[in-house]
């Protein structure tokens, strides 16, 4: 995010969703709160309460965002440590089976609180969500910090997440530089997961407008690339296709380019970020086997191509062969 601002300045399985009517969008079906209340120690405030946050606030609104962003006090938006991990989980997790883990990395220069609404939605649908951050948020050691935090919590008898994280259903996600880091994690972690924990298995990668320092040919787990028609920072026609999606031949991969989505839309409100429903549908499909969600991605009549939200959608041969 910071790099783009500089450029501008200089120039437990939840219930399966009801079967949607023909012509409905993933956004209208899945962009809804889940059945679980959310627990988190994270506290946010309007980003414009700091000088750095005010600059970010002005820029994203000039570039089309409609809602005000939220931030934590992590430096430079406040005086808290610039390095850490924010955790969200279902408040009723003690009554649920172990929950899948989503390790989501913020964009370059973005404050982790900007993804608070997304994290809360995912947690309300039964995920344990960890958001590791250290300002740059662009290399694999950042999601590794999230994994370490989750593993420690799952093994700590004093943690509410003790024995409540299902590492067998680990998904990496991220936006911009964080999407790049998530793809790097999808390259590195599948081969070493069992050495971290015998139960750990990487189920997929959610790469939202990812940076260029990742190669699709090296990712060995199912991957969804989300791009934006109005994104001039990570254009759909650039590296996200050239050496990421187009070179994804080890595992099923999808790419969806949404109309009206810019590079900063993921830090807008849930209703104004038009990929929100699609991201949740894919997560539910990968983590819970949700059949309605799966129908948007799998089968000869997969629903995503008919979804009017998208300018274009594609899937590779391995995704095409799924049933």
UniProtKB/TrEMBL annotation:
Boundaries of every PET hydrolase/cutinase-like domain copy: 86-285
Cleaved signal peptide residues: 1-17
Keyword Hydrolase in record: yes
Stored SUPFAM superfamilies: alpha/beta-Hydrolases
Pfam families: PETase (PF12740)
GO molecular function: hydrolase activity
Keywords: Hydrolase, Signal
Protein name (record): Alpha/beta hydrolase
């Amino acid at each position: 995010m910071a790099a783009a601002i500089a450029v501008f300045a200089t120039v437990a399985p939840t219930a399966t969703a009801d079967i949607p009517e023909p012509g409905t969008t993933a956004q209208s079906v899945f962009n809804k709160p889940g059945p679980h209340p959310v627990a988190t120690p994270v506290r946010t405030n309007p980003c414009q309460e700091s000088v750095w946050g005010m600059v970010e606030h002005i820029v994203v609104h000039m570039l089309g965002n409609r809602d005000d962003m939220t931030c934590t006090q992590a430096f430079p938006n406040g005086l808290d440590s610039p390095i850490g991990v924010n955790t969200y989980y279902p408040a009723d997790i003690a009554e649920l089976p172990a929950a899948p883990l989503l390790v989501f990395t913020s964009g370059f220069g973005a404050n982790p609180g900007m993804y608070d609404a997304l994290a809360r939605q995912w947690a309300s649908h039964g995920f344990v969500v960890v958001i590791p951050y250290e300002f740059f948020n662009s290399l694999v050691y950042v999601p590794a910090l999230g994994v370490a935090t989750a593993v420690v919590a799952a093994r700590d008898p004093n943690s509410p997440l003790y024995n409540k994280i299902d590492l067998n259903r680990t998904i990496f996600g991220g936006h911009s530089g964080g999407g790049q880091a998530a793809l790097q994690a999808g390259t590195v972690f599948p081969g070493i997961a069992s050495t971290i924990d015998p139960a750990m298995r990487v189920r997929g990668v959610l790469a939202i407008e990812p940076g260029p320092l990742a190669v699709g040919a090296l990712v060995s787990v199912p991957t969804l690339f989300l791009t934006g028609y109005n994104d001039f920072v990570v254009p759909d026609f650039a590296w996200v296709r050239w050496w990421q999606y187009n070179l994804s031949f080890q595992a099923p991969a999808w790419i969806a380019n949404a109309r009206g989505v810019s590079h900063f839309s993921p830090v807008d409100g849930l209703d104004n970020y038009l990929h929100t429903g699609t991201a949740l549908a894919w997560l539910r499909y990968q983590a819970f086997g949700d059949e309605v969600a799966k129908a948007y991605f799998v089968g000869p009549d997969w629903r995503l191509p008919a979804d009017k939200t998208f300018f274009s959608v594609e899937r590779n041969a391995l995704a095409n062969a799924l049933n």
